[in-house]
Specification:
Length: 466
């Protein structure tokens, strides 16, 4: 088998779903009606939908079979115990609190651990995570390494925490004002970049010596484990499952969006080792989500997630999942399209600031590029730049993160290699006409997580292309 290097999928297709190709004229109307926000497009108007990998996974026949075994009792469903056991086995946390999705877990954890005026360091922000920390009275501090803000840096673990930045925060405010540290693995907004085991260990040791709780954002921890196996010395012969468990063992708890790694369409959880925190969480989950043995999920959804966790940690699955993302990324690199390097785990990120240098930051080049790609080919992507970053909680000014990106996010087990080829060709087509793309300005700006529902108009004329 030494000749075989392909990432071919360890499954075959049993059920298919039709997708529809639209005309350019139809797409021009659709994106204008959507306020040039791809979140406001109808799914049926999208040909290849790379908006997100969240909840867009294709489930296996085994997961669908598990759905029929849903125990929809209000309390003590057998599917809760299956999920609890899967989390204990593969993630290693003792107490599991199910939630409807990841942000439900973030809400509960933030309410329990953050006191007004506290600080919460993290390796780059995530939209919902930071908002829940702020709503609980906390202030987020970015402690990711500088390389993460440079799209060209080839650092193999660009998600790493810069321990000196954590130490500086401790010196500035004192360890007792730090509610906890969140470590995202992989780091979504840095481009799906992983954290090394060595870095996790170093940060965890320092934090535990200093009395700081370590929380993992485990949303894509299995993908992170694959990168450790591929890139970090000493892990090449360990399984993804073993590495995942070793990562979690360095932390005190985790929030999880099951809609990513776990190959389901809905669900999430909070998991901790501390019994007192677990009791508080079991109490709060009743207020916001549902009883502590379902937390907003149907029994069948908990069963699908329990089975999805087992499938997600298989090495063959991860090889093809990340292999497909790397395949698309390499095509774009070969074509000379500016993308974030190295290619991350769940998505290829286009460097919109580099592609559209004629559009100033306050006219949102990434938002414009996502709209242009949709008009060109019906491919739906997402902005990850100034619109996603929102406004500063204190000053009300726009935040301008260093990265101004468009994310082509690959749903798990959904699209084929030919779809990746079409995607690459479409991006190249827009790249060839990049000087024609117009900037955008707000017509409507919601207060919270504005990127989801904001509406824009084009600057300097009608239509996204001049
Ligand atoms: C999606 C996501 C979340 C939030 O999870 P939801 O299930 O969407 O509520 C948190 N952190 C990261 C890194 C994510 O990608």
């Amino acid at each position: 088998m030494t000749r075989r290097t392909s990432w071919a999928e360890p499954w075959k297709i049993k059920v298919v779903e039709s997708i529809k190709m639209t005309t350019r004229e139809q797409r021009e109307v659709a994106i204008r009606d959507a306020g040039y926000n791809t979140f406001l497009l109808k799914s049926e108007d999208c040909y290849i939908d790379l908006l997100t990998d969240s909840g867009t996974n294709a489930m296996s026949d085994n997961q669908w079979a598990g759905m029929m075994l849903g125990d929809e009792a209000y309390a003590g469903s057998r599917n809760f115990y299956a999920l609890e056991s899967a989390v204990q086995t593969y993630y290693g946390y003792e107490y599991l609190i199910p939630t409807h999705q990841g942000r439900g877990a973030e809400n509960i954890l933030s309410k329990i651990l953050i006191k007004d005026g506290d600080y919460v360091p993290g390796n780059m922000y995530f939209t919902t995570t930071r908002l829940h920390q702020e709503l609980a009275g906390g202030t987020f501090r970015d402690v990711i390494i500088d390389e993460a803000h440079d799209p060209a840096s080839e650092h193999p673990f660009k998600g790493n925490v810069d321990l000196d930045k954590v130490k500086a925060l401790v010196a500035e405010v004192g360890a007792d004002r730090i509610a906890y540290i969140t470590i995202g693995v992989t780091v979504n907004l840095a481009g799906g970049q992983p954290v090394s085991m060595a870095n996790l260990r170093e940060v965890s040791t320092y934090c535990h010596d200093t009395g700081i709780t370590v929380i993992l954002d485990a949303t894509r921890a299995v993908e992170n484990a694959w990168f450790i196996q591929q890139r970090e010395k000493g892990y090449g012969d360990k399984s993804v499952a073993q590495i995942l468990r070793a990562m979690c063992d360095l932390t005190d708890g985790a929030t999880m969006s099951g809609k990513k790694d776990s190959l389901v369409n809905i669900g999430g959880w909070l998991a901790v080792r501390d019994r007192k925190v677990a009791e508080q969480a079991q109490n709060l989950v009743v207020v916001y989500e549902g009883l502590h043995t379902y937390g907003g999920m149907a029994g069948r959804d908990m069963e699908a997630m329990a089975r999805g966790i087992v499938e997600s940690v298989q090495d063959d699955h991860m090889r093809s999942r990340i292999g497909q993302v790397q395949y698309l990324g390499q095509k774009l690199i070969d074509a000379g399209v500016p993308v974030v390097h190295p290619i991350g785990g769940h998505a290829v990120f286009l460097d919109a600031a580099a592609i559209l240098p004629h559009i100033p930051r306050d006219k949102f080049p990434a938002q414009a590029l996502a709209a242009a790609l949709y008009v060109e080919s019906g491919i739906r992507s997402m902005e990850r730049g100034a619109v996603s970053a929102g406004r500063d909680a204190k000053t009300g000014e726009n935040r301008y993160p260093k990265l101004e990106l468009v994310r082509l996010t690959i749903p798990r087990r959904v699209y084929t290699q030919a779809h990746m080829d079409v995607t690459a060709e479409s991006v190249m087509e827009v790249f060839d006409h990049r000087d024609k793309v117009r900037g955008l300005e707000f017509l409507y700006e919601p207060e919270y997580l504005r990127f989801f529902q904001a509406r824009f108009g084009t600057v300097g004329g009608d239509g996204i292309f001049a």
